[in-house]
Write a structure and sequence with these properties.
Blueprint (H helix, E strand, L loop, with lengths): L5 H23 L9 E12 L4 E10 L2 E6 L7 E6 L4 E4 L1 E6 L29 E11 L3 H7 L7 E7 L19 H10 L4 E7 L7 H13 L3 E4 L9 H8 L5 E2 L21 H9 L2 E2 L10 H9 L23 H10 L4 H7 L2 H6 L16 E14 L5 E15 L2 E5 L17
Parallel strand pairs: 1-4, 1-5, 6-7, 7-8, 8-9, 9-10, 10-11, 11-12
Antiparallel strand pairs: 1-2, 2-3, 5-13, 13-14, 14-15
Helix pairs in contact: 3-4
The structure holds zinc ion (ZN).
Length: 433
């Protein structure tokens, strides 16, 4: 009998081990058909899809980057990859309607090609976000640079509210320049990039005039998009009541809802009562966005407001280099605060999916209908002893917190915290020896 050469023996041994490992892998993940119709199947998760009225244990199947089927008990052999989402919540990819992602290297600038904004992909997927909306980093003049430098280079879907200031959010006197606030040119740029520009932003103006708001509303009307206002700091102060009831249109957005900052009337008065005009504004169709940020969310406002039933329409972050390392942290931490404040999970999820999409008039996003782009987040509600910090530094204890297990963008897994979509390492093909 011929002796088996050592290298051949080793190859046979490796092949045998690989087969055994493969069968172990298959016992955890059943054998797949030759050409299964789905690329990815998310099994046994609790699906929350407010737009389509789904709030139940369901499977979600994805093929060619789109949602292919949402149903109970889809067989595992119909997909190439199966992710077990037992005990987890499956939601549309989260949308953050207030972020600052026009990052760059202009030392003279802040949130417009500057150091205070952050890179989208560094923050989005790990928090279940598939869409980030930069609000006001760019204006009509700087948008082309923002598109080239950030939007076109990000895997995250990046959309924009154009600043009514043509130069964008560069800080200092640039944002006080009324002669650079042109409604017509802002609307023209918005229409030119209809698929990317979803609103107009007003922020940081310190003068006594209403002109920035008036011109932003005019641009919004011409381009058929909403206006978001970061209000306050006017000398003398302008009336929040007038802003919400007279100047803005239904569908326009007040951000920093639970702020208590100099120069802006807080929504809750000194006796803890929600001001009546705030309710009137909501009835009129004004959208209230959390816009947490580094200085715009106080429990002293949010606790009495939410006790009176005043929850936000949308729970955005106001993500930038200051807020991400402060009390805000990320969108899941911000959403968790509203869970702790008594907002039901399905409403918290709706705020940042179906509702957020409606607010920016992008109803192609924020849901899991068959044929929609497969942007999905798989979230875990973790129980424990946690603390949530507001922008004044005050802490609220809490017993629950959201974490992101899996994020899928256009059908691709872009974040997988614990490898729920991955085979065991021992079942992986070996590199050639
Ligand atoms: Zn902001």
């Amino acid at each position: 009998m011929m002796a088996v050469r050592p290298s051949l023996a080793r190859a046979v041994r490796i092949a045998a081990i690989a087969l055994v490992c493969l069968s172990i892998g298959q016992s955890r993940q059943p054998l797949q058909a030759q050409n299964p119709p789905f690329d990815l199947l998310i099994k046994n998760g609790h699906v929350i899809d407010a737009r389509n009225g789904v709030d139940a244990i369901m499977d979600v199947a994805i093929a060619a980057g789109k949602i292919a089927q949402v149903a109970a008990n889809i067989p595992v052999d119909r997909a190439r990859t199966v992710a077990d989402a037992t005990g987890l919540f499956v939601t549309p990819g989260l949308i953050d309607i207030h972020a600052h992602v026009f990052w760059g290297h202009d030392a003279e600038s802040q949130y417009s090609d500057g150091y205070s904004a952050v890179q989208p992909d560094s923050h989005s997927f790990r928090a279940g976000q598939t869409t980030l909306v930069d609000v006001g980093g760019s204006g009509w003049r700087s948008f082309p640079r923002f598109k080239e430098q950030v939007i076109d280079r990000s895997r995250t879907r990046v959309l924009a509210f154009l600043n009514i200031v043509g130069a964008g959010m560069r800080g200092g006197p640039v944002e006080q320049n009324l002669s650079d606030m042109d409604a017509k040119l802002t609307a023209m740029r918005a229409r030119e990039h209809k698929n990317l520009v979803v609103g107009v932003k007003v922020a940081h103006y310190a003068g006594p005039e209403w002109d920035p708001v008036t011109r932003a509303v005019q641009a919004g009307r011409e381009a058929d998009i909403p206006v978001m206002v970061d209000f306050g700091g006017h000398t003398p102060p302008l009336s929040l009541d007038d802003l919400l009831l007279k100047h803005l249109r239904p569908g326009d957005i007040l951000t920093h809802t639970y702020a208590h900052v100099g120069g802006r009337t807080p929504i809750v008065d000194g006796e803890g009562r929600l001001r009546p005009f705030v309710l009137e504004a909501r009835k009129r169709g004004i959208i209230f966005d959390a816009g947490h940020g580094g200085g715009s969310f106080l429990f002293s406002q949010a606790v009495p407001a939410t006790k009176q039933g005043f929850y936000p329409d949308v729970i955005s972050t106001d993500l930038h280099i200051g807020s991400m390392n402060g009390g805000m942290k990320d969108i899941l931490n911000t959403m968790s605060k509203f869970l702790i404040l008594g907002m039901p999970l399905k409403d918290v999820v709706k705020a940042n999916t179906a509702r957020a999409a409606e607010v920016i008039k992008r109803t192609d996003l924020g849901h899991l209908a068959v044929g929609a782009e497969a942007d999905v987040a798989v979230l875990r509600v973790v129980q424990g002893n946690f603390g949530f910090i507001d922008s004044g530094g005050g802490k609220m204890p809490g017993d629950r917190k959201l974490e992101c297990e899996l994020t899928i963008k256009a059908g691709q897994v872009v974040w997988d915290l614990n490898g729920i979509s991955r085979p065991l390492w021992s079942a992986m093909p070996r590199p050639p020896q």
